[in-house]
Amino acid sequence: MYEQSPVANLEIAPLPATERRHVLVIGAGLVGLASALWLQKAGHRVTVIDREPPLAGASYEQACSYGNACTIAPHSVLPVATPAIAWRVPAMLANPLGPLAIVWRYLPHLAPWLRAFVASSSKHEVERIAAVLSSLLMQADAAWRPLVHEAGAKALERRHGCLYLYKTEAQFQSAEPEMFFRERHGVALERLDVAAIRDLEPNLAPLYCRGVLFRDAYTFSSPKLLAFALAMVVGERGGTFVGGEASGLEMTGAGVRLRVGGDEILADHAVVAAGAWSGMLARQVGDSVLLDTERGYHVLFPRAGSLLTRPVCYPQHGFYMTPMADGLRAAGTVELGGLSAPPNPARTAMIRKGVEALLPGAGEATSEWLGFRPSMPDSLPVIGNSPTSPKVTFGHGHLGLTLAAITGRLVADIVSKRKPSIDLTPFRCQRFSHFGAKQK
Ligand SMILES: Cc1cc2nc3c(=O)[nH]c(=O)nc-3n(C[C@H](O)[C@H](O)[C@H](O)COP(=O)(O)OP(=O)(O)OC[C@H]3O[C@@H](n4cnc5c(N)ncnc54)[C@H](O)[C@@H]3O)c2cc1C
After folding, report:
1. Under CATH, which number does the domain 17-435 receive?
2. Mean pLDDT score of the chain, rounded to an integer?
3. 374-401 as b/e, with b when 16 or more CB fall inside 10 Å?
4. Where are the domains of the chain?
5. Residue 332 Cα: closest atom of ligand 1
6. Which pLDDT score, from 0 to 100, does residue 439 have?
7. Where on the phi/psi map is residue 238: left (φ > 0), alpha (ψ -120 to 50), or beta?
8. Ligand 1 proximal residues by C-beta, below 6 Å
């Protein structure tokens, strides 16, 4: 276990009683839960709405927060769209099993998002995005600590870093510019040879030639348990959970109105933290957010949880192998194909095959999952008020586990009308409005 680096204190002072509000948080993924708890710490009253809130008996599987690779990843300063991406779009279309693939049928809906994605991939844009992203990532851990402490979830933390591996010297050398880029943006990393990798992870098949260890990365052994622990604290602090489909979000003179099932809920403010579904709620208040989804998969190997100590990723395979409380989760790959297409079993078969080769003894896989990762074209989250409805605040993004707590902290500042610690201009939801509205 590595020593924890010192972190800033992000604790928030409660507002005077006259400035406290009743806030609806739509979505009980980790972004919604972290927002709810930070809002409570600021003194607000929260009502959290979700199709299936993380309370006793819930499977929680529809939240993207359930099925991710469980890694707090301060090394993720590099956006998905990089300068080589425009050349790779034809390959993404041609190979439905590639680590980053586009589903043909979805292409007409994806066009504006894809144009913005390619426009975000210039060298200049990637530098700008990385600088912005690292300003958030630097505070990610500091924002998680008070929440984890309060939720009594410290035992879920595993601070052992995250390992990237390369099978050939040529692959490693071609990743070097990315590594220098990460270092320039403040990421601490250590280059490893075969012996050092074997010492760290002796159970891996010896297919690796070089590796990189990101020391500051860490995992939660179960994001589901983390969500349940956070929900419990939100409830203990007086928060209410409402189960059901939220719709009809609208501004009233004094605040907001929302329908959940047949009921209507009134409040002073709403936070839309509905992950990949947030775009639909944004449209209800007249906003067009160019949000889409990266469909990602995981496969669980229940007997392999003790074979690795930390998440291991061969970038050429496009998935992480993360040791967790209930086994080894192989999670990742990106499929741009919308929210309604069925899962593609060929993708999970590919992940299974990959794990069998990379980690002998992983055993049988017992379950598979498809989740919908919220995704803006520039890989930056949305954090900010609706341009049309000032009593509606959005919060969601691609790195939602890592950035949930700092997003929640900033959401609490916005709702409380306090100056946020970070300039939020790059995160505004309307930043791609000139690329056209998303219709689906
Ligand atoms: C395979 C994979 C691996 C990943 N690995 C990592 C990683 O290692 N590190 C990392 O930082 N991120 C990772 N991510 C991304 C991360 O999981 C997401 O960014 C994050 O979970 C998003 O959280 P959220 O709270 O915004 O959305 P969600 O977790 O999806 O929560 C949104 C909630 O809102 C509910 N909802 C939506 N609409 C409505 C409605 N109208 N009414 C009621 N309820 C509604 C949904 O049911 C859901 O419960 C990964 C994602 C995938 C798919």
Report:
1. 3.50.50.60
2. 94
3. bbbbbbbbbbbbbeebebbbbbbbbbbb
4. 17-435
5. 1
6. 45
7. left
8. 27-32, 49-51, 62-65, 68-71, 73, 245-246, 273-277, 296, 298, 331-332, 371, 373-374, 396-402
